[in-house]
Amino acid sequence: MSTNNDTTPEQNYTKEEETSLLEQAGKSEEEQLAAHVATLRHQIEEANYHYHVQDNPILTDAEYDQLMIELLRIEREHPELQTPDSPTQRVGAAPIQDVPQRRHPQPMLSLANARNEKELLDWHRRAQNILPNAQFSYVCELKIDGLAMALTYEKGRLTIGASRGDGMIGEDWTQNVRTIRTIPQRLRGDLIPDKVEVRGEIYMSTKSFEKLNEEMTDNRLFANPRNAAAGSLRQKDSRITSSRNLDFFGYQLGYIQGMRINTQWEALELIRGWGFPVNPHIQLAHSLDEVMDFCKKWEHERFNLPYEIDGVVIKINDLAQQEELGVVARDPRWAIAFKYPPIQVATQLLDIRVNIGRTGSVNPWALLEPINIRGVTVSRSALHNEEDIQRKDLRIGDWVLVQRAGEVIPQVVKPIEERRTGKEEVYHLPENCPRCGTSIIRIPDQAMAYCPNTQCPARNFESITHFVSKGAMDIDTIGEKTCEQLLEAGYIQNVADFYRLTRDQLLAMEGVKEKSADNMLKAIEASKHRSLSRLLFGLNIRYVGEKTAQILAGHFLTMDRLLEASEEEIIKIPGIGPKIGHSTYLWLQEPANRALIEQLREAGVTMEEEQKQKKDGPLSGQTFLLTGRLNNMTRSAAEEAIVNLGGTIASGVSKSLSHLIVGEDAGSKLAKAQKSGVPVHDEQWLVDLLEEHKQ
Ligand SMILES: NC(=O)c1ccc[n+]([C@@H]2O[C@H](COP(=O)([O-])OP(=O)(O)OC[C@H]3O[C@@H](n4cnc5c(N)ncnc54)[C@H](O)[C@@H]3O)[C@@H](O)[C@H]2O)c1
Ligand SMILES: [Zn+2]
C-alpha cells in the first residue's frame, strides 16, 4: 500500500497566484475568499488522501498543518463559510472500499494541537470555563507516531482490529493485527469485561523503519516511521505485515461493557494488566506546571527513544469530567496534543556535488535550498554514495524531504515524486576527479568510488589537515590555512614533510610571525611522541578510524610487528574483519607508504604503543564508557586520563558499567544505558572528576 497512485496532482496555486487569477476573472472579495477556502479544502483533501490512504504524503506535516491552520482561521472568522464536510470537521480519510469496513462503536477522534505554552493554557482555560469548579489532574503520555487502532475483545478474545478510517467507519485489518506479536490474542488476568475496545498506536521502531527503507527495492521509500507503520499494516497479504516488525502501545479504552472505570490512569493500568505494552513514560500530573515540565523534558529526550514521537498527549484524568467536557467538531475537549517542531521539512535539491576525502573517497553531497529545521538553517547534506542516490532516486531539481532528528547531521530522506515537473535530472557521479582529472575508480562490491591519485590536491589537503588534527597527531598550531599555504609553496607533499619544515620556510608564509613559527615547530616536535594508535589514525588508511587504529596498535604494539603481519593475521583481530583488514594490509604493502613510514621513523616519530598497563588509582574498579562528542577534550584524551587514574574503559553498555559519559550527538548507547539503569553523566561531570583527582 506504499505504492504511489499514478494520477497527477492538480495544480496547487499559491495564494498570490490564486488571488491574481481571481482578480483577473473579476471576482468580488467574498467570491475570492470562498474560492480560496475551496482551494484550501481541495489541497487538504488531496494531502489527506495521499497520507491516510496511500501512506505516502505529498506535503510535510508542517506544510499540512499550515493549510489547516489557515482554513480554521477563515472558518472561525467567517462562520458562514463553514460546512459539515470541511476537513476541519472530519477525521482522517474515508476507508478504502475493497477492505472490509467496521463501524466504530464509539467514534475515533483526532486531537486538537497546542504548539506552545500559550496554546496549552488556552486549551486549559476553555476546559475550566466549562467546568469552573472542577479540580483537574492530567495524564501525560508520549504521542507515538504511528496509526491508531481499535482492538475489540469479546470474552477476552481478540475479534476485531480496525483502523480509524474517517473516525466513524474504519478498515478491518484483524488478520494483519494478529501478526503483531505484542498484541495479545487473549486478555490476561481475571478482571475481563464481556466486551471491550482497547485503543492504541501501531508503530514501527526507528531502526526497523531505516532497515525497511534500505530494503525497499522499487524506489518506494517511506517518508517516516508513521507512514511505514500504516503502509505495513494496510497490506492485502498478512505475511508482509508479519515481516515488518510492527509494535503496539495501548493508551485508551473505547467501548466497554460489564465494567466501570473512573480514570484514564486506571484505564492504562488495566490495559497493562491485560498484557498490552503500555508506554513506560507516562506521568500523572496535578498541575499545568508539571504538564509543561513533562513536555519540555521530552522535547529533547525524544531523540533517545527507539521510536518517533511528535509530541505529548495530555488527557484530563477523570472520565466523568471527560464526559462532561465532550467533543467539539472532531476533537475531544478533554485532551490536547502538545506538538514539537517538525524534524522533517521539504526543500529543493539544487545540485549534487562531490568532495574528495582524505583517503581519496569521492563523497557526494546535496546542495539544498536553505531551510530552517528546528532552529538550524540547513543548506547541505551528505549523500553517502552514488548507489544510495540511485536507490532513493534523487534527481537534481527534486523536492526532497530533509530530516534533522536529534543533533544528527541532516539527511535527505526521499524525493517527493508527486512534485516532479519532468525537468529533474538523474545524477551520475563524475567519471573524473573534479580536482585532478584522474579517472575515478569503483571497487566491485563496494558502493564507494575513489580518486586513486595519491598526489590529488584535494585528497592531499584533506589527508594533511587530518594528520595535524586533534585526534591524530594534534599539531594544533597548524591550521587549515597554513596547511594550504605549505602545500602551495611545495614545502609539504606528504605528512613526513612536517618534520623537515624549517623556521625560515614557516616565516616565508604570509601572516606567520616569529612567535607563531616557533609555536608551530614546538607543536611539531611534541607530536613525535604521540602513540602508535594516533599515528595510524593520522596516516589516512582507508577505513581506519580512531577506534580501529586503537585496536591495531593495541594488538601489535609496534609498527614493525604490524608491517610484518599477514593479511590473515590482521583480519583475525576482533573488531577488524575482512574489509578493514584487507584495506589496511594493502596500504601497508604499498612501497610509497612504507617509504613514508621510514621517513617518519627517521624524523623521530614514535612507532610504539605505550603499554596501557592496568594502573592503580582512585578510579580503580570503576568502568567508564564515553559516547558522543566532547567539547573540552578528545575522547581518546579523556579515556587516557581515566586509565591513568586506574579506571577501565568498557567496550559497550552492560549492566555492570559504572558510568556512561554522554557528549553531544550521543547515539543508541544512551538509550541502552537508560534502559539498563546505568548512571549517565555529562561531560562536565567527567571534567570535575578528573580535576578532583588530578595528580
Ligand atoms: N503530511 C501530510 O500530508 C498530512 C496529511 C494528513 C495529516 N497529517 C498529519 O496528521 C495530523 C493529523 O492527524 P490526526 O488527525 O491523526 O491527528 P494527530 O496525529 O495530530 O493526533 C491524533 C492521533 O494521535 C495518535 N496518538 C499517539 N499517541 C497517542 C496517545 N498516547 N493518546 C492518544 N492518541 C495518541 C493517535 O493515532 C491519534 O489518532 C496533522 O497534524 C499532520 O501532522 C499530515
Ligand atoms: Zn583527484
Spell out the blueprint of helices and strands.
Layout: H1 15-24, H2 29-53, H3 61-77, E1 101-103, E2 113-114, H4 117-130, E3 138-144, E4 147-154, E5 157-163, E6 169-171, H5 174-177, E7 195-204, H6 206-215, H7 225-233, H8 238-242, E8 246-257, H9 264-273, E9 283-285, H10 288-301, E10 309-316, H11 319-325, E11 327-328, E12 331-332, E13 335-339, E14 344-356, E15 362-373, E16 376-382, H12 386-392, E17 395-396, E18 399-403, E19 411-415, E20 425-426, E21 441-442, E22 449-450, H13 457-468, H14 480-489, H15 503-507, H16 514-527, H17 532-538, H18 546-556, H19 559-564, H20 567-572, H21 577-589, H22 591-602, E23 623-627, H23 635-644, E24 648-649, E25 659-662, H24 668-675, E26 680-682, H25 683-692
Parallel strand pairs: 2-13, 23-24, 23-25, 25-26
Antiparallel strand pairs: 1-6, 3-9, 3-10, 4-5, 4-7, 7-8, 10-13, 11-12, 14-15, 14-18, 15-16, 17-20, 18-19, 21-22
Helix pairs in contact: 2-3, 13-14, 17-18
Bound molecules: nicotinamide-adenine-dinucleotide and zinc ion.
Strand order of the largest sheet: 2-13-10-3-9
Instruction: Write down the overall mean pLDDT.
Output: 91
Named at the architecture level, the CATH assignment of the largest domain is 2-Layer Sandwich
Distance between the termini: 64 Å
Catalytic activity: NAD(+) + (deoxyribonucleotide)n-3'-hydroxyl + 5'-phospho-(deoxyribonucleotide)m = (deoxyribonucleotide)n+m + AMP + beta-nicotinamide D-nucleotide
Binding site for NAD(+): 61-65, 110-111, 141, 164, 201, 315, 339
Keywords: DNA damage, DNA repair, DNA replication, Ligase, Magnesium, Manganese, Metal-binding, NAD, Zinc
Domain BRCT: 614-695
